[in-house]
Amino acid sequence: MKKAVIGWMLMCMLFTARADHITGGEMNYTFVGINNGLYTYQVTAKLFMDCYSNRRLPNPAYFGIFNRGTGAHIMDLSIPMARQDRLLLSNPSPCITNPPNVCYDIGLYNFTVNLPPVAEGYLIVIQAVYRVQGISNLTPGYGNIGVTYTGEIPGTATEASGPQNNSARFTGDDMVVICANNSFSYSFAAEDRDKDQLRYSFTNAYIGGSGGGGTNFPPAPPPYASVPYGSNYGPDAPLGRNVKINPTTGLITGIAPSDGIYVVTVQVEEIRNGVVIATQRKDLQIRITACTIASASMPPEYMLCKNTQTITLTNLSTSPLITSTNWELFDSKGVSVYNSNNTTTSYTFPDTGLYTIKLVINRNQQCSDSATSLAYVYPGFVPDFIVNGICFKKPTQFFDASTTSYGLVNSWDWNFGDGTGNDVSALPSPTYSYVSMGLKTVRLVATNTKGCRDTTYKNITIVDKPPLSLAFRDTLICVPDAVQLKAIGNGIFSWTPGTAMVNGNTANPTVTPGTTTTYTVHLDDNGCLNHDSVKVRVVDHVTLKAMNDTTICQSDTIGLRLQSDGLKYSWIPTSQVMNPTDPNPKVVTRFTTSYQVTASIGSCTATDQVIVTTVPYPVANAGADTTICFGTHARLNGSTEANAFAWLPASTLSNLKILDPVASPATSTAYVLSANDNRGCPKPGYDTIVVTVLPDINAYAGRDTAVITGQLLQLQATGGLNYQWIPSIGLSNPGIANPVANYPTPSTGISYKVLVYNDAGCVDSAYIKVKVFKTMPSVFVPNAFTPNRDGRNDLLRPVAVGMTRIDYFQIFNRWGQLVFSTTTNEHGWDGTIAGKLQPSGTYVWLVKAVDYTGAPYVRRGTLVLLR
């Protein structure tokens, strides 16, 4: 039952503490004394939490104690929270624009622990879930990541008095206010009651135990993995490469990155008698906001050490409270060489040297500030290094290859990228043995005696054996030929067996075995070993058998084949072989040809041949292409000597069993004649005829019309290229599209037929009827109509004679309502309005027109609608 209660308490604590709210932590301890051989320590731990998370800090919290060297579990402790404090930025500086809301809840945990001294020492651990989400310097999409905070108690192995140690204790203000892209400083300083030497550095933040966070209560044993840093960041550069930490004071300075949340972990090493006896860590998630500070903000130094002597200066603070800017540059003697009041300015130094840059803003005003920086103008400094040896747990040698045009390279800061904390060196050409495999980013920060400093990075891959590859793993030679073996790698080579071999201690020995032999190459890279083998097969002749002779259709492509152990091949005639060195090439054979192949293994050769006989394709002639008029036919005229033939497509052909069928396509069509015979070529021959069908002619002669005697009538036919009017009565020219007609006598109607031809001579026809009246220009309107839909006299139409146009023809009922209107000749009224029948009775009509002489014509009258 007791286990169930404890499990229930753990589950409750997990769900109350589990959240994305932990923003930092640290731990320290004080040595109290010795009692019955046990060393007593008073331990204090802090957990930081975002005030705005609506979460709770763990209460109680679980601490674990482990052997620092072996990771063996010693004990777990459940510690209630001593108190919870709140840290709030309540009175920001007036020189900060858009000050951030900074608020942390800090949980304090105190407890006493009694431990016997051991050689390795102890590690005190607390873990929690989770860190705040959206941390900007971690890999995007990392999800929830737990936290691990530690305190180290040294053992007797590193220092006899180590177990009586008082840990270093961070004394810096926990309140952090940093504005994005502005210069800043923040102290991670610590104090040590034992007066040990303290050394500060950035280090990797830990995730919550080996499981990556989640449910690590009580804490999981070491070692602890690093959080996944994103590109441009890392354990040694958690805020980017523009932010540094002073190893002596713990002061962080530089230019802040863009706004976001950044995890920053600083370790302070306690050094006693020249030996690091313990390391304490402080971990914070620092919130950088888009505020600005009215400040003179510059990098602490400008390195013009590569290839330029021109500097561009700009205040890194973009605060709107900055009203004036002054730049002044001084040489090494303090003499002013340049000044400017511009916000951004550039200057080219006339000579090399060390210069001082001074920036003053808002001189004699509120929020005035000044800063100085140094410019190192010594172009020609290039940091570089060479790596030798990439084997796991074997020495890797790093050789400084930095060059400088001024002074001497005198300082080297190496980080070998192994993530152990001990993977650093200050030697010019150090040696390091990697404890883990994989891709490592090696960093070298080099300086010279002129003060120039620059950084270079290189990626190397640490493996468990040196890379070794062979140019080939199997080859063939013919007695008595020699072959050169080829191995690729770095290190010392040796080959076995050494018989019939020259230069056996090189990467490329020459061998002359009398029988098939397997040679093994051994590579030794600083004690890191690898090996591989190559088989040299030996024969005394070349085996070659070409394919049987064959017959193909003329000009076809065929693949030749052979069986052989040859290494090289040569086919002739080369003009017909697509790749003469291919053992199985493709050839194009237009006439019967004997193809000869020579196979060789070194100095041994063999020859064989293949005869390819060609048979011509069956000849099919579909005839010449032709063009036909729309709706007409074409007779095809094919020919062949083959004993079988076929036409496609069949749907528009009159007879598929003859060579000259009639084609009746509705649209342009390609007809294919295929021919087969039994003369040896099994493939058909093809030919195609295209029957082009011209478009249908859309002949038009115009609408029927009426004129008066003496009135000229302009006819207009369309739809083709050539025209012929029949009969030619009254026409000015019956052979054009638009003749003029003139009639001296009246007629009840002259019917014209116009023949319309296209450019191919195809013809179609259209008709028009012309009535001729002997009268003055008039619009005739019937005086009555019977719209009863019997097909007779159902419409009342105006008939215009001798008129150029009708402006309007209108009909009104007896109440003056307009019931019909038109401007078109012979367009009639059916006796309805909007589909509704109108009553019998008398209606008034009105017409306005213009006759062919241009004179106006206006008339009115009455009509009777009868039902």
TrEMBL record:
Keywords: Signal. CDD domains: PKD (cd00146). It comes from Niastella caeni. Transmembrane segments: none annotated. The keyword Signal applies. NCBIfam families: Bac_Flav_CTERM. Residues 1-19 form the signal peptide. This is T9SS type B sorting domain-containing protein. The keyword Signal applies. Residues 411-462 form the PKD domain. PROSITE patterns: PKD (PS50093).
